[in-house]
Amino acid sequence: MPTADIATEMTKADAPSSASLGCDAGRDSVNDGRWRVGNRMLAIVSALMLVIGIGATGYRTVKNYQVPGPFTPEKQGLCDFHNGIYFPARAVFAGESPYSDAYAAKYPVARQIPFFSPVILLMHAPLAILPLHFAEMLNTLLQVAMLFAIAAVSAHAAGYRRRLDVVLAIAAVMIFTRGGHITLFNGYFTFQLVLATFLAVVWAERRPVTSGWMLMIVSAKPTYILPLGFLMLARGNVRALVVGAVLSIVAATVPLGWIAYNEGGGNLNEGVSILVNQIVDTQEVHRSMEDESPLYSWTRLDLFAIIAKWSGNDPGDLPHLMVMFGLLALPMLVLYRRMQIGIDDGLAGWTGTLLMLGLLVSLYHQSYDSLLMTAPIAGAVGMRLTAWQELRPRVRWMMIALMMLPAMNYLSTRTFLNRFELSETMTRVFTSLSGISLAVALLVICVLAWPTKPATEKISNTQVS
Asked: How many Å is the Cα radius of gyration of the chain?
């Protein structure tokens, strides 16, 4: 990808700091198109940890492989690839609705899929025509490639252009997070969503059409595209959003129309009615799952789920959307104000932090979605961007801890909670820590990022030092 498309806004001297991962800033600032290793020891240790992490995850996947069929908590290896990608895509090819009870009865899956755009199924269509085990292997390789791509984009956005050692370090940390491990283990498409979200933000101003294609991928999950769309609107990314909306509608309408036509036996109107009822029913099934319910889930990150858990009341989808708009109001206002006076320090800066935290806090998200904080954390730890450099160390490390906690909160895993007999209150505390930490981080960054004076010159997310 072109260097100029990723934010790497620096201080005037672009000088190294003690927290800059042992970089040689003078050499690193020269962009000659070649990858380099700035810290050999960091590269060796990171590569070793990465091999251990991927190897351990692979071993666990094979040992706990889920034979396609009913779900069992003890056997989850590649279960999301089976239930959420491979068999749903095969059903769409056959003109069958993966949202229907008939699909769940016919195919070896745990249940019908929740409502997400079939665009993600079309993306994985080449895998669906392959034998299952071959498709599993290729999907795992794709997941590893996405892991490195996310690490590379994050490193670049944080100011470490073509630094192999930093990319390896970020990838190694990711594989040991809850989100990184479970995505590779279950075979879900979270890596694709995170990478597409990052690139949509990165390319929004300079390459709006390309950003729109990325938004089409993000639209696979409404809980991603809805808050991200509003936040990017406040950022001023109108062209990218228009392109993304058009592409998303087309990419969803064609396969949904195909499904509806077949479900209605050639009668499109009747098929649409049947499909709508199926989607309503599958959402009810989805909400009834213990790990999805805001009342009982140990994996939810959004603030709505925390409030519902402690109040003992789940008011439903419409209030959830109203809460989303309320939670987005402040970060949108901050982003709009920054846009007005020309401040945008990119994906790994305070702009990206506002976008990613607003996305996670405002609407339904699971623990694996905490991978969205990879780039902002890289920016805060790497200290190459002016905003992070000028922040007081105590506040900066507090922000890092708040953003990092959900990724490392193993107190809120099924394994930990089942092993220890905790009281209901302690269970609520452990399962609320991640969401609370992100909500606090969002409030803090809104205060920090509010511009107190006009920028002397525009800081663009396409600027290169």
From this structure: 22
- Give the number of other Cβ atoms within 10 Å of residue 59's Cβ: 11
Q: Using DSSP, state whether 290 is helix, strand or coil.
A: coil
CA distance 237 to 223: 19
With a cut of 60, say whether residue 110 has pLDDT above it.
yes
Q: Which residues of 128-165 are buried (b: 16+ CB within 10 A; e: fewer)?
A: beeebeebbeebbebbbebbbbbbbbbbbbbbbbbbbb
Question: What mean pLDDT value characterizes the chain?
Answer: 89
**What is the pLDDT confidence band of residue 460, given thresholds at 50, 70 and 90?**
very low
Instruction: Indicate the pLDDT class of residue 9, thresholds 50, 70 and 90.
Output: very low
Residue 36 phi, psi (nearest 5): -140, 160
Cα 39 versus chain centre, distance: 29
Q: Which helix (H) or strand (E) holds 208?
A: helix 208-218
Question: What are the phi and psi torsion angles at 431 (to 5°)?
Answer: -85, -5
User: What b/e readout covers 76-88, taking b as 16+ CB neighbours within 10 angstroms?
Assistant: bbbbbbbbbbbbb
| pLDDT recorded at residue 435 | 96
Query: Please, what is the angle between helix 374-382 and helix 164-175, to 10°?
Result: 130
pLDDT at 10: 39
Q: Which residues contact 104 (CB under 8 A, 6 or more apart)?
A: 110, 111, 112
pLDDT tens-digit map of 294-340: 888 889 999 999 999 999 888 777 888 899 999 999 999 999 999 99
What's 114's DSSP letter? P
Coil, strand, or helix at residue 454? coil
pLDDT band at 457 (very low <50, low <70, confident <90, very high): very low
Domain segments of the chain as ranges: 37-68+77-449
Contact 244, 200 (CB under 8 A): yes
β-pair partners for 72: 75
Give the start-end residues of each E strand in 288-430: none
**Alpha carbons 359 and 412: distance in angstroms, whole number:** 21
Beta bridge partners of 163: 36
Residue recorded with tokens 């991927």: 54
The residues, ordered by sequence, that sit 6+ positions from 95 with a Cβ below 8 Å of its Cβ are 258, 259, 261, 262, 263
Structure tokens at 298: 């140990």
Distance CA(307)–CA(463), nearest Å, equals 40
The amino acid sitting at 164 is L
